């Protein structure tokens, strides 16, 4: 039971839920939570393949980089949301439509 | 012993998926943020089952200690804090479900039907090997990641700082 398929299925569920959060949420912080779910599913995939398929630790090293990029992305994204909130008094992504043609 | 291992594994799996569902569907944003905490813990537990001890520790330290704290700060700073009842409605939920179900079905079909090569890794401590890989094979990405983190640090500070208008 404890095989690659189980981990890949959990990863698919996390990815799909993250995508759903990105598609349906209006609050920017909630969209960011969806992105974090997707990054977690990618990391889980890397580690699962590293454990079951390749027999070396390259996948785990890739997962380390996924965590690094997620940290940088979260910091910059929240700084942008703070500015959006200061400008618009709201953190809803569909309020930021100045560039709409 | 084997049975206990399976029970704990499925507990972590259910914890991960169940709290992720709460993250996506709960109508209050602060509940979503705390459910995300349990999702990260669950993924860390799954990392332990995948014999990735270093990554499990890094997951808890960085995600739970860093990113999640940042997200909760973000929730509080971008809302009027009178109650914990900060709503974040979902919109077009049923329209979005159509492509979501299609993507999930497609991905699952691919994963199910592909014959993956198997070369299971033995259970060993991984920290030393990851450290050696980071300083030999992955040295350039490692240095690039440090530059990225520095740029993100400076950029986030520059963006988030509050500039008061000059009086004169």
Describe what you observe in this structure.
The complex is a heterodimer of chains A (101) and B (168). Chain A is built from 3 helices and no strands. Chain A has 101 residues and is mostly helical. Chain A is elongated and about 50 Å long. The model of chain A has no long low-confidence stretch (mean pLDDT 88). With 168 residues, chain B is mainly alpha-helical. In chain B, α2 (29-49) packs antiparallel against α3. Chains A and B meet through α1, α2 and α3 of A and α1, α2, α3, α4 and α5 of B.
Q: Identify the CATH class of chain B.
A: Mainly Alpha
Please state the CA-atom Rg of chain A, rounded to the nearest Å. Answer: 17 Å
Radius of gyration of chain B: 21 Å
Task: Please give the largest β-sheet of chain A.
Answer: none
Q: Helical percent range of chain A?
A: over 70%
CATH architecture of chain B: Up-down Bundle
The percentage of residues in β strands of chain A lies in under 5%
Largest sheet of chain B: none
Number of domains of chain B: 1
CATH class of chain A: Mainly Alpha
> What is the approximate shape of chain A?
elongated
The CATH topology assignment of chain A is Helix Hairpins
Low-confidence stretches of chain B: none
Summarize it.
The complex is a heterodimer of chains A (101) and B (168). In chain A, 78% of the residues lie in helices and 0% in strands.
Keywords:
heterodimer; A: 101 residues; mainly alpha; Helix Hairpins; 3 helices; 0% strand; B: 168 residues; Four Helix Bundle (Hemerythrin (Met), subunit A); 6 helices; globular
Helix and strand topology:
The complex is a heterodimer of chains A (101) and B (168).
Chain A (H helix, E strand, L loop, with lengths): L3 H21 L3 H27 L3 H31 L13
Helix pairs in contact in A: 1-2, 2-3
Chain B lengths: L1 H24 L3 H21 L3 H25 L15 H21 L13 H9 L3 H22 L8
């Amino acid at each position: 039971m404890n095989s690659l398929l189980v981990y890949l299925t959990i990863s698919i569920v996390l990815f799909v839920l993250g995508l759903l959060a990105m598609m349906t949420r209006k609050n920017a912080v909630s969209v960011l939570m969806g992105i974090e779910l997707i990054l977690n599913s990618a990391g889980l995939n890397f580690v699962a393949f590293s454990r079951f398929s390749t027999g070396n630790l390259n996948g785990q090293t890739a997962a380390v980089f996924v965590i690094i990029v997620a940290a940088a992305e979260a910091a910059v994204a929240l700084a942008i949301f703070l500015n959006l909130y200061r400008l618009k008094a709201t953190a809803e992504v569909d309020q930021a439509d100045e560039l709409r043609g | 012993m084997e049975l206990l291992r399976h029970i704990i594994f499925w507990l972590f799996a259910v914890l991960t998926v169940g709290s992720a569902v709460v993250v996506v569907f709960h109508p209050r944003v602060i509940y979503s943020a705390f459910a995300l905490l349990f999702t990260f813990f669950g993924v860390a537990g799954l990392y332990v089952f995948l014999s990735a001890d270093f990554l499990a520790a890094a997951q808890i330290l960085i995600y739970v200690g860093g990113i999640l704290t940042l997200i909760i700060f973000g929730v509080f700073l971008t809302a009027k804090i009178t109650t914990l009842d900060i709503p974040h409605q979902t919109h077009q939920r049923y329209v979005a479900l159509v492509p979501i179900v299609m993507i999930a079905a497609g991905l699952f079909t691919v994963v199910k039907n592909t014959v993956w090569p198997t070369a299971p890794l033995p259970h060993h401590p991984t920290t030393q090997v990851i450290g050696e890989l980071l300083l030999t094979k992955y040295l350039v990405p490692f240095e690039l990641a440090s530059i990225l983190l520095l740029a993100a640090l400076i950029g986030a500070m520059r963006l988030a700082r509050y500039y008061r208008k000059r009086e004169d």
